[in-house]
From TrEMBL:
Active site: H255
Catalysed reactions, as listed in the record: a (2S)-2-hydroxycarboxylate + O2 = a 2-oxocarboxylate + H2O2; 2-hydroxyoctanoate + O2 = 2-oxooctanoate + H2O2
Residues binding glyoxylate: Y27, S253, H255, R258
Entry protein name: (S)-2-hydroxy-acid oxidase
Lineage: Eukaryota, Metazoa, Chordata, Cephalochordata, Leptocardii
Organism: Branchiostoma belcheri (Amphioxus)
Keyword list, A-Z: Flavoprotein, FMN, Oxidoreductase
Keyword Transmembrane belongs to the record: no
Length: 363
């Protein structure tokens, strides 16, 4: 690996932009529609102010967190994103290695280019969760669940904000850089070999279950003993429904501004959802988290863990597994410092009173 060492996330981003072919950079960066929500995700964090407590003993700061039953070095983990082979030849194996060496957690995407088994072999001790795409044939879904279980994935993530896949606009079929990529956690032996072909598009359309509904979540609950997380919830009503059907976690998310444009920043949607679930399940957030102070704000607003999407892709593109590790370390160090400066020596010291929305100061 090249010698890359940055103290700012921005530097990983610029190096990634320089290194990646332009079609990949655009695929990673672009939001849906007019891009209102993607901008709002980052802007919204800046509208919260931190109100630190002073004269506390912060000589030792402990950022360790328990998430879905696993002990992590920090409450920052990796959101599922597709096609890591476009960022680095080692693909998701590099991401898993970086995550494991930082003792964080990694959600592997169904649109990943490396198999679940490869991930287990490459980073056997890493905490790993699998974002599952349901198949029309329940036996095939069961097979994926069994593979995940055998490969040491301890939770299934269902992405619930994507009722309609646009298979004809897949990166594999539209991007030159995506030639030859595989989707080994989504397709089966009967898939056409060439992922760029119209036959492949038709295959996905025939096999992938869409839209999924609450009945599918109930089915999943009956068919796996792994923990279940629903990702992409924005309303308190849906959060309550999720609790009712017995999931273990909710990730408040707008898909990094890549699905319905015009929805609120996920950090703004978080507090209502935390209130609605009343501690019955774990609540996470992703979207626009770029600094340790963003993490601190999210924790104060009730998230148990925050997830990062694009920053990991920047680290991966800039410096492979080491880059992923460095990006995670950066978040950890920034969180550690922010906690000390805010008077918090452990995560349980981070209280809602630590954040105030800017509107409080403006009237
Ligand atoms: C994503 N995201 C995503 N989410 C998901 O549930 N399944 C997926 O396959 C993908 N794929 C994907 C690809 C790319 C290139 C990006 C940028 C994002 C969304 C992802 O999990 C997460 O919600 C956002 O990326 C979080 O926002 P930030 O951190 O990128 O601002």
């Amino acid at each position: 690996a090249s010698q890359v060492s940055f103290s700012r996330l921005e530097d990983f981003k610029s190096l990634a932009k320089k290194r990646l072919p332009s079609d990949v950079w655009e695929y990673y960066s672009f939001p849906s529609c007019n891009g209102f929500t993607i901008q709002e995700n980052e802007r919204a964090f800046q509208r919260y102010r931190l109100l630190p407590r002073v004269l506390r003993d912060v000589s030792r700061v402990d950022t360790t967190a328990t998430v879905l039953g696993s002990q992590l070095d920090m409450p920052v983990a990796i959101a599922p994103t597709a096609h890591h082979s476009l960022a680095h030849p080692d693909g998701e194996k590099a991401t898993a290695t970086g995550a494991a060496s930082a003792n964080s957690a990694f959600v592997l995407s169904s649109f990943a280019n490396c198999s679940m088994e490869d991930i287990a072999q490459t980073a056997p001790h890493g905490v790993r969760w699998f974002y599952l795409i349901l198949q029309n044939d329940p036996d095939r879904t069961r097979e994926l669940l069994q593979r995940a279980e055998r490969a040491g994935f301890t939770a299934i993530w269902l992405t619930v904000d994507q009722p309609r896949f646009q298979f004809q606009h897949r990166p594999e079929s539209e991007m030159k850089s995506a030639e030859g990529v595989r989707l080994p956690n989504l397709t089966f032996d009967d898939a056409p070999g060439d992922a760029r072909s119209p036959e492949f598009t038709a295959y996905l359309r025939d096999n992938v279950k869409q839209p999924i509904t609450w009945d599918d979540v109930v089915w999943l609950r009956k068919n796996t003993s792994l923990k279940i997380v629903l990702k992409g919830i924005l309303s308190a009503e849906d959060a309550k429904e999720a609790v009712k059907v017995g999931v273990d976690g909710i990730c408040v998310s707008n898909h990094g501004g890549r699905q319905l444009d015009g929805v609120p920043a996920s950090i703004d949607a978080l507090p209502d959802i935390v209130r609605a679930v009343g501690g019955k399940v774990e609540v996470y957030v992703d979207g626009g988290v770029r600094t340790g102070t963003d993490v601190l704000k999210a924790l104060a607003l009730g998230a148990r863990c925050v997830f990062i999407g694009r920053p990991v892709l920047w680290g991966l593109a800039a410096n492979g597994a080491e880059g992923v590790h460095q990006v995670l370390q950066l978040f950890k160090e920034q969180l550690n410092l922010a906690m000390a400066q805010a008077g918090c020596s452990q995560l349980s010291d981070i209280k809602p009173s630590l954040v105030i929305h800017e509107s409080y100061y403006l009237h």
